[in-house]
User: Fold this.
Amino acid sequence: MSHKENIDAILTSIEQTIVGKRDISELSLTALLAGGHVLLEDVPGVGKTVMVKSLAAAIGADFKRIQFTPDLLPSDVLGVSIYNPKQMEFEFRPGPIVGNIILADEINRTSPKTQSALLEGMEEASITIDGKTLQLPKPFFVMATQNPIEYEGTYPLPEAQMDRFLFKLKMGYPTRNEEIEVLSRSESQLPPELTAPAITLEDLRELQVVVTTIIVDATVKSYIVDCANATRDHASVYLGVSPRGSLGLMKACQAFALIKGRNYVTPDDVQYLLPYVFSHRIILHPDAEYSGHTIENVLVDVLEKVRVPVLRTNSV
Assistant:
């Protein structure tokens, strides 16, 4: 199959389980192809876990779930070395982080120390145990969930952790007709893990390589950087988007262009993906928050004020 056919097969497979939410499916696949990770923030019961399982099933990936709780330890995530008396040596028993698709469920319910156990894996695709570095399987993709309405007994994610997520997404409630369809499908639908993969992991790895070949014109790169700078210079912003955010936006645009069947990035791609990449990387001044300003307002200002480039015809 062609690259576009493989991508469409993944999305079609996800839609066998997830009703509607095509935009979330595309964005989740965009992050996976770009080598990034996703933070899903929404109320319980809207399908966050099913979305992750469906994505893993569609590509035939090794799926692992980590249920974050207040008493979870870093070793519960990374793994532990256990002494084998027969071999008279320590054997490493890998933790649930060693997999392709990792669901970090309710990540804000555990301590910052345990949250940070994910940092190295998310950034370097490796973990260090007892001074030894272990490479994680490829692809390696973390989709973390958190409940935005329960604050008691939770630990807000530190900025260093938030910056590791490429996207911050919200699924939202289904429409009335979509919810009726959910009820109808539940009568006979197989769970995601029992559905046949749409593509192989090798196909997925090939798509990730193709993403790096998608053309990003110099004017589009300048547009991305100008938008990032505009967040840093905004009067309401205390901490603007980091260079990691600019790089993440460019990679996301490359992956999104591939999903849309193009071999080049357009300014429209930047405008569409920018809120998902930038929103969780911005901190407002306290007085701006008290005055009713929001991060969404800031991003609207940025997109309105930064000049949109016109692509040269030879760039595509």
DSSP finds 14 helices and eleven strands in the chain.
